[in-house]
Amino acid sequence: MPVSVRSATPADAALIHQFILDLADYEKLLDTVTASEADTAAALFGENPRAFADIAELDGQPVGFSLWFYNYSTFVGRHGIWLEDLFVRPSARGSGAGKALLVNLARRCVDEGLGRFEWSVLDWNAPSIAFYDSLGAATMDEWLIRRLTGDGIRKLAGV
């Protein structure tokens, strides 16, 4: 049976949260995860969701997910998609699940007239980098991601 991709539903909140934990473990960042299952459910399925998820299934079983949201490019003058997380269980890697999730989002971009489809990858993650290269995704070497969190946000906000 081929890989299928479907939009996540509220019943998937625990599954998605587990995928997030599995991804964080793979990326050696499990100790940085503070989001709870309730946080995940509220963000994806609350009154005004600002993030979305898709589930990849193989033989009817969930094997991976993508979590994404819309962004906007002032230079292009159109919205795009930022892929926050992409994860496929190790046992399903090579099945086409990761590519199916990316194809699903690329089709969304085409169908909605979106201008960009972007994501980041850790510099040590050679298998993922090779996979993205095989799809024709360009590395944006000239751009550096900057981040404020916690105290840094509060300090800048003056609170």
Topology:
Elements: E1 4-7, H1 13-26, H2 37-45, E2 52-58, E3 61-73, E4 78-88, H3 97-112, E5 117-119, H4 126-134, H5 150-157
Parallel strand pairs: 4-5
Antiparallel strand pairs: 1-2, 2-3, 3-4
Notes on the structure:
α1 (13-26) packs across α2. The protein is built from 5 helices and 5 strands. A 5-stranded mixed beta sheet has the order 1-2-3-4-5, with helices on both faces. The protein has 159 residues and is of the alpha+beta class. 35% of the residues lie in helices and 24% in strands.
Helix content: 25-40%
Helix-strand category: alpha+beta
Order of helices and strands, N to C?
Answer: EHHEEEHEHH
- What value does the Rg take, in angstroms? 16 Å
**Judging from the principal axes of the Cα atoms, what is the shape?**
globular
N-to-C span: 54 Å
Features:
alpha+beta; five-stranded mixed beta sheet; 159 residues; single chain; 5 strands
What is the compact description of this entry?
Helix content is 35%, strand content 24%. The chain is an alpha+beta fold and 159 residues long. Helix 1 (13-26) crosses helix 2.
